[in-house]
Amino acid sequence: MWNLSQDMVEEILSRVPINYLGAVRCTCKGWNGLTKDESFPKKHCGKAAKGHLRIMIYESKACLMSVNLHNKKGLVDPSAMIIGNFLNQLKIIKVFQYDGLLLCFTKNLELVVWNPYLGRARWIQPRREFTVIDTYRIGYDKSNKNYKILRLWICYDGDDNLTSEYEIYNLKSNSWRVIDANFDHWCIT
Q1: How many separate domains does the chain show?
Q2: Where is the F-box domain (predicted)?
């Protein structure tokens, strides 16, 4: 492999299934560094998308499942694999993905951002308590080169009145801020 260009090695490693990336990182320092580069998860996700892999929740675990909408024998590959050992320890009820990062909401009403490529997790502390009916999305702010989480906080009082608030969590600064917006009809897709 030493005679291959770095572009060729990156192309090969981007095709390695996610559950084998840990073994790849242990093989040599150069490969470890390459898989930790910011561009690697995007390239890896691009290859995975061509393989029709989707993240699904099965028995409170995040799984990669192969989905083929043109296959008449069955839509889902029965050999789904659970993503990483870290997520096996959590009871997940919601998962969102962006650029290879997984934003997971647990049955214990906790929010965690997990990077399966680096095997790192960051627990997000709430500005106010998390609730099961909250809605989340994760995205990237190109102008600040930073990942952010959008949260729609929803609360019902005893009289069936609805209170809602939009919040943005900045992963770089570890802080929440409230968006000053009042939407009569809200929807995060």
Answers
A1: 2
A2: 4-44
**CA 67 to CA 85: how far, in whole Å?**
23
Q: What domain range is 27 assigned to?
A: 1-47
- 94 bridge partner residues: 105
Q: What's the token pair of residue 147?
A: 């990942």
Region class of 31: left (phi > 0), else alpha (psi between -120 and 50), else beta: alpha
Residue 30 shares a structural domain with residue 109: no
In a domain, 62, yes or no: no
Q: How many CB atoms lie within 10 A of CB 158?
A: 5
- Judge whether 188 lies within some domain: yes
**Strand-by-strand arrangement of the 135-141 sheet:** 135-141, 146-156, 162-170, 175-179
Q: pLDDT class for 76, splitting at 50, 70, 90? A: low
Of 133, 128, 92, 129, give the one whose Cα is nearest residue 113. 92
102 & 25 share domain: no
Residue appearing with tokens 């502390």: 125
Percent of the chain clearing pLDDT 70 (strictly above): 64
pLDDT tens per residue across span 9-66: 777 777 776 667 777 777 788 777 777 776 676 666 665 545 555 666 667 676 666 5
Helix (H) or strand (E) holding 36: helix 29-36
Same domain, 43 and 119: no
Q: Which residues pair with 123 in a beta bridge?
A: 112
**Is residue 164 located within the same domain as residue 111?**
yes
